[in-house]
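re: ur msg from earlier - yeah i can do the fe (iii) ion complex, just paste it... oh wait u already did. ok heres what im feeding in:
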Amino acid sequence: MAGTLDLFEHEPGPPEPIAEGAYLLRGFATDISTQLLNDLQHIAEAAPFRHQVTPGGYSMSVAMTSCGELGWVTDKRGYRYSPVDPQSNQPWPALPESFEQLAIDAAATAGYPQFSAQSCLINRYETGARMALHQDKDEQDLTAPIVSVSLGAPISFLFGGPTRSHQPARVKIEHGDVLVWGGPSRLFFHGVAPLGKRADHPLTGPVRYNLTFRKVL
Ligand code: MD6
Ligand code: FE
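and the outut:
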């Protein structure tokens, strides 16, 4: 029965441990992905995607915006969280209900029942865009996990270790996959390989979006 098989194809699997305290929830957000993408478009109308500049003076290949109480920003002065969009001097758009509930549900499923997000960074990858190996360490509260949702074209995620020299593992991340990252691996190095020329998804075309939910303070 093709119809039955089709239903199972999109069923989320059990949390897959990828590092100590870090879990991959494959397909966890697939059911609500059209709602998430619709809400994302509204956020981008109020706070447009932009290529921010690193403290070293490089323009990032990933375009970013934010929603929630705090947004992640970078410029010549450094990396930080800001309650206002520096482009408009207005507060960031509020976290949509769909985003907020997904972050809570995913964190709880991975064993972090107390999580609630203060910030959602939205990353947009077009062909060739990548994220160099880095640690997420601009947050004061390092006891909270990070919830990361991938939408659209697939990409290779790079999972490293506690030092930059640790050879990263490559894992293909697809539309609807959610990563919950905390505990002992909270400060592990990680990155994203360049989005491939043929990468594609019916809902986004050759574009990948990533939502990263964080408790900052
Ligand atoms: C991305 N994600 O997937 C970039 N950081 O586009 C991250 O840098 C990230 O996915 C911390 C935890 C989960 C992540
Ligand atoms: Fe990160």
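cool cool. The longest strand covers residues 119-125. ping me if u need the other ligands too
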